[in-house]
Amino acid sequence: MRRWFAAASLLTFAAATAAAAAQTYSAPTPEPRSTDPAALVARANAREVHERFMRGVAAEERADWSAAATEFRRVVALDPPEPKGSSARYDLALAETHLGRDDAAVALLAEALHRDPRFAAAAANLVAVELRRGDLTAARRAADRYLALAPGAVLARYGRGLAALRAGDLATARDDFRALIDADPSYATAHYDLALVELRAGRDDTARAELQLALALAPSYARASFALGTVLVRAGRNADARVAFDRCARDADDPALRALAIDLRDRL
Fold it and tell me: How many CB atoms are closer than 10 A to CB 231?
């Protein structure tokens, strides 16, 4: 079955291509003709499941989440066997979270994992939704489950590290981000997140070194520039901090982050 992960980060959902979906959700093999009422109902339901899956995927491709939710809600009501049953709940969860209904998404992802305990994409996105809801206990529980399911996956380690950082478990967060860096020293995001751990622990010198590494790997990493500026201010290096905030203001896509960087730069 089609099972996709977040494309840019753990906290963003991505859609598969319509072509891939069409291949995955190919029409069921025609059954022998029958006049048995139960067989006719089963065949009609199978056709409807297939058609609604295809329409739902097409709606996801054009980011029409309301239409996608309608299609996958009907598939869930039809309750097809695995793997389509868990996939329908997963797809509906994607639509619900884009519509701002994270509580519903959590319930659907949990149902998908109950039906298919090895559904790694559902486990990954459950961490993301729980983090966005601010339920750190649930996020950590989901992250531990995801890591147990996929111990070698980068997203599994990153998800648990992020959940641990948010919950204040700095030792676990440090171990997870350090493991990611050891596996791939060019992972700029892991350097940035490790820097946040070190800042929380009061180790500004270590944090500054990690932020500088992140920026060497990703020069336009605006959040790393902003964090570096705050570390430099705390060290009394206002001129260097001003340069960092100016760099953040130049590179930031987030208007709020850009405005804050400009304000701090102009105050120095």
Answer: 23
Three-state DSSP state, 19: helix
Region 35-42 average pLDDT: 68
Burial of 3 (0-12, 13-18, 19+ CB in 10 A): middle
Nearest to 68 by CA among 18, 6, 116: 18
pTM of the predicted protein model: 0.72
Question: pLDDT digit string (tens) for 142-154?
Answer: 988 988 888 888 8
Q: Are 4 and 121 in contact (CB under 8 A)?
A: yes
Predicted confidence (pLDDT) per residue in 133-176, tens digit: 888 889 888 988 988 888 888 888 888 999 899 889 999 999 99
Nearest to 121, CA basis, from 239, 252, 5: 5
**In the chain, beta strands by DSSP E:** none
Angle ∠(131,173,246) on CA atoms, nearest 5: 80
Give residue-wise pLDDT tens across range 208-257. Answer: 999 999 999 999 999 999 999 999 999 999 999 999 999 999 999 999 99
SS3 of 25-92? CCCCCCCCCCCCHHHHHHHHHHHHHHHHHHHHHHHHHCCCHHHHHHHHHHHHHHCCCCCHHHHHHHHH
